[in-house]
Amino acid sequence: QVQLVESGGGLVQTGGSLRLSCAASGVSFSTSHMGWFRQAPGKNRAFVAAISWSDRTYYANAVEGRFTISRDNAKNTLYLQMNSLKPEDTAEYYCVRAREWAIYDYWGQGTQVTVSS
Fold this sequence. Notes:
Radius of gyration: 13 Å
Strand content: over 45%
Largest sheet: 7 strands, mixed
Mean pLDDT: 96
Low-confidence stretches: none
Helix content: under 10%
Shape: globular
Distance between the termini: 40 Å
Number of strands: 11
């Protein structure tokens, strides 16, 4: 059974930082492409960042230069370091696994990030 469990969300002030984690189980993590999506209230779910099994990284324009996606294959854990947070980053953040690049088949339950102005 595949499980993706996010943690690290919370309330932070504008300009602050958070690091999200996603613990994966039941999946071959080291050979999986992984990513993060987010969904703000009243909006569609949106791509944030992705990392290939070979550590290529891709970012949405809105977070480029502020967020960093990384992975620790020894711990089966995906990370999202978020710096210089803005109120518009407020959203539920989801960890995802892609069975092929950009084809996502497993989603976590999400972790809430709230950035106060």
